[in-house]
Amino acid sequence: MAFPPSSGDARLRTERIAILALFVGAVTIAFAPILVRLSELGPSATGFHRFLLAIPLYWAIATTLPRAAAEPERPERPRTFRDFFLIAMAGVYLAADVAVWHYSIRMTTVANSTLLANVAPIFVVLGGWLLFRTRVTGTYLIGLTVAMAGVFILSRASLLLSHEHFIGDLLGVLTAVFYAAYQMSIERLRRRFSTVTIMKYAIPTSALVMLPVALASSEDLWPVTLAGWGFLIALAAGPQVFGQGLIAWALAHLPVAFASVSLLVQPVTAAIVAWALFGEHIGLQQAIGAVIVLAGIMLARRGSIRR
């Protein structure tokens, strides 16, 4: 006689699927810097189109996706001003993350800005404790420390610390703050709303925030070739809609602190992609750093298992 799976088994299975979705999403958004590099436009204008072109995609998904498939356990729709405001703020945090990071890249080295932008898990833990009194285990903290050490080793060969880069480095840290705020905001919103519901209202806000940033940068706002449009559409459909969508879905089923650490797989993936597409060298130091990042993520997972 077969017995139906217990709620604990079902939850464990859902968490495993969420971990897979999280890693696939992280790998997908790791292609964003590559597509930004290939874009005909400047980084700010490219960021604007990343959000603008994603809007019809999210709304198309929301219109065509059957109601039964759209996470029936979270059927709520935003109705009050507070609901729309909280969702809009998630869009503001994401746009601020992209905009500040692009300015950081201009004012410091790419290695510095990338490393500092990836300290977001530290702010997730700190913000969770200050705002919601969320506690983490000692095993998780060890995993976080190990993963951050791996990211540092991965980027160490290209780091350049100097007084001239201080403002750019500071903006890199601010990027991490905004990304941590975005992750925590999405994790809270996903307790009530589906992924598509959140994104179809948050991303238009992101586009509105990025528009004045793009205009102020004096960059060309529109590509002139089909290839230029192709890279922008790929950026919107891939890293934004698919990648960020998977991460937002996973945040309903995983602790945000663990999810944030897991996203450190992005610099590892970006290094591999840059090696494959642009021939950028991966030395022994970078390989060791990548292995340490993955080991830290595994430790953080052990410290984040729901019992």
Summarize the topology.
Blueprint: H1 7-29, H2 32-38, H3 43-52, H4 54-64, H5 81-107, H6 110-117, H7 120-132, H8 138-156, H9 166-189, H10 195-216, H11 226-250, H12 256-262, H13 265-278, H14 284-302
Helix pairs in contact: 1-11, 1-13, 2-11, 3-5, 3-10, 3-11, 4-10, 5-6, 5-9, 5-10, 6-8, 6-9, 7-9, 7-12, 8-14, 13-14
Describe what this molecule looks like in 3D:
- By secondary structure, this protein is mainly α.
- The protein has 14 helices and no strands.
- α3 (43-52) runs antiparallel to α10, α5 (81-107) packs across α10 (195-216) and α8 (138-156) packs antiparallel against α14 (284-302).
- The chain is globular.
- The mean pLDDT is 82.
Described by the principal axes of the CA atoms, the overall outline is globular
What proportion of the residues form beta strands (DSSP E)? under 5%
SS-derived structural category? mainly alpha
Low-confidence stretches: none
| Succession of helices and strands | HHHHHHHHHHHHHH
Characteristic terms for this protein:
single chain, 307 residues, mainly alpha, globular
Summarize the entry for a quick read:
With 307 residues, the chain is mainly alpha-helical. 75% of the residues lie in helices and 0% in strands.
